[in-house]
Amino acid sequence: MLFDKEAWKVHCRENARSLETEINRLQSDYCDLLGLFWRHYDEFWAHARRISEMFKTLKPLFQEDRERLWAAYSTACEEMKQAQAREREPERADSKEKRDLVMSKIREAYFQAKGAASSAEFAEADALLSEALAWMKNGWEGFNTITQLISPILSSG
C-alpha cells in the first residue's frame, strides 16, 4: 500500500479541527460568558479528560497543531482550576473560623474539667462539650447568643 501524503495531511487537519471544536466547547460550555456566576466543574473536568484522551488517540496530527491545541487546552484547565480555588477559599476560611470557635469551646471545657472540684463543675464542663458537639452537628443553628450575632457575618452552617 502506498503512502498518500495528501490524504495524511487532510486527516491531520480533520483531527486538529475535532480537537479545536472540543477545546472551544470546553472553554465556553461550563460557565457564563464572563465566568463570574456559574460553573459546572464536574462536567468540565469530565470533558477535559475526554479531550486528553483525544490527544492520545487522534493521530495523525501536525506537531504545530498539537502544541497550539495543547496550549489552549492547558490554559482552559488552568483557568478553571484557579476559578475553583478562588471559589473554595471563602468556604475554607469560613470552615476555619467555625473550627476555631468549636476548638475554643472544647479548650474551655478542658480547663473547666481540669479545675473542677465538684460534680457540678464537671457537669458545666460536660455542658460546654455538649454545646460544641451541637455546633458541629447543626452548623450555626446550635450556637449561643454571642455566636448567633457573629453568624450573619459568616455563611450558614
Structure description:
- The chain has helices at 5-28, 41-57, 63-114, 119-138, 145-150.
- Helix 1 (5-28) packs antiparallel against helix 2 (41-57).
- It has five helices and no strands.
- Helices cover 76% and strands 0% of the residues.
- The radius of gyration is 28 Å and the shape is rod-shaped.
- The mean pLDDT is 85.
- It has 157 residues and is mostly helical.
- It has two domains: 5-89, no CATH class; 90-150.
What percent of the residues sit in helical stretches (DSSP H or I)? Answer: over 70%
N/C terminus separation: 69 Å
Q: Summarize the helix and strand pattern as letters.
A: HHHHH
Radius of gyration: 28 Å
List how many beta strands DSSP finds. Answer: 0
What would the principal axes of the Cα set say about the shape?
rod-shaped
The SS-based structural class is: mainly alpha
Label this structure with key terms.
single chain, 2 domains, 0% strand, mainly alpha
Question: Which SSEs are present, and which pair or pack?
Answer:
Elements: H1 5-28, H2 41-57, H3 63-114, H4 119-138, H5 145-150
Briefly characterize the structure.
Helix content is about 75%, strand content about 0%. It has 5 helices and no strands. α1 (about 5-30) runs antiparallel to α2 (about 40-55) and α3 (about 65-115) packs antiparallel against α4.
